[in-house]
Structure formats: C-alpha cells, structure tokens
Amino acid sequence: MSATALRAAEVSAEVLYRYTLHLGDTSLILAQRLGEWIGHAPALEEDLALANVGLDLIGQARYLLSYAAELEGKGRTEDDLAFLREPSDFTNLSLVEQPNGDFGHTIVRQLLIDAWQLELFERLQSSTASKLAELAAKALKETRYHFRFSAGWVVRLGDGTEESHRRVQEALDDLWKFTRELFAPSEVDGQAAAERIAPDLATLRSPWDARIDEVLRQATVVKPAPVAYAWHGKNAQHSEHLSRLLAEMQYMQRTYPGARW
After folding, report:
1. Over the range 62-77, which residues count as b (16 or more CB within 10 Å of their CB) and which as e?
2. Which CATH architecture is the domain 3-228+237-255 placed in?
3. Which end of the chain is more exposed for a tag (fewer CB within 10 A), N or C?
C-alpha cells in the first residue's frame, strides 16, 4: 500500500471511530436519562415502557461503544468508554442530556430524537461500514416502537386537558432549540457522509419535519419558530447537565476502579 493510500485508510478509520463514538454516546446518555424514571413514572405501564426503551438504547450503546473501542485499537473496552471518560470527551447530542423535567417534557424530548433516529437508521442500513449497517437494521425495528410510544403520548397529552396541553407546549418550546444540532453537520458528520459511512444530515430534515408536523397537528401543539443555538454536544460542547449525569453514572467505576459484579 502506498503512503498516500495508507494515510487515507488511517483517516477513514479515524472518521468511522469518531462517528461511531458519537452515536454510542447519544444512545448511552439518553438511556441514562430514561433510567432515572424507573420507579417514578406516572403509572406502572409507563414505568415499564420507559425502562424498555432505555434498555434498547443501552443495547445500541454497548454495540456502538464496543465497535468504537475496537476501531480505536488502544485496548479500551465499552466500559472504559462509558465510565472512564470526562464530559469533554463525550460527543452526544445536546438534546439527550437535557433533564427529564415532568413526564410530558421527557416524552417531547423522546419524540424529537425518535423521529430523527428513524430517518438516520433507515439510511444507515446502506452504510459502507457493515457493522453500522447491521446495527441500523436492528435498531430501526426498536425505534419504530419508540416513535409510536412517544408520538402517542404527545398526542394524548397535547390534545388532552388544558394543563397537559400547556405542559407539552412549554416542553416543546424549551427543547426546540436543541433540534438545530440534529441537522447541523459537524466535521465528522461531513467526512462520514463523504465516505458513505453515514447519510448527509440534510436528507433527514424534510422527512423529520413531516413526522413531527403530523404529530404536533394531532396534538394541537404549535411548532416553535427556529431558535439560534451557539454550541453543540457532538462537538464536545456540553451543558452543565452532562457533568452531573456522568458523576452519578460513573460513580461506582471511579470509586472502585476495575470492580466487577
């Protein structure tokens, strides 16, 4: 292999590693947020549903972080990447690190990310990275259920009582600014799209809008106007909420390094 070809291969491996890590971080952090609801949801059925969605996301995170560790080639494991990195090393979407708030706030956050993951996983099935394509095929089936769950609840709450409608509208108004990041390509997103590892994020926008618009129409909730947002989690620029979440999530591994069940 020529020196030029070798450098190109190294760049491709680095892009695949960073993109895979970004997806894994996003699923991991959202799963942790949903896990905070266990034992606290409004009813047993919703408690179990949120736990099941969280478990699906943990499964995705484990696959992706294991793959990322393999690509990195430094002897780290999925657990090392999950529990032994600093907040500034995480590249999850800002949306998923936002606090749960009330049940309506959590459901609105879930709807926004579910609709995005549906479009992403649909296209990732054509990825030149076979392991990402395999993950996408499995995750797509799970995400269809996630979207039905979150969309159903947004409609039920939005078109419900005056109080539930107000809370859903306020949650949407609060979270809407974070949706800009879903379609704003980072350097890694652009490189991954160029190498057909990942889809062009611009192709996700129109179908995502269509899904969200239909749910909001049924929920009688008003879509907020675009809001400028200066920094993004996938560029490792995070809110203080991520540090607090990781302090709890990583406590055992950092307090008792190498501990095993």
Report:
1. bbbbbbbbebbeeeee
2. Up-down Bundle (1.20)
3. C
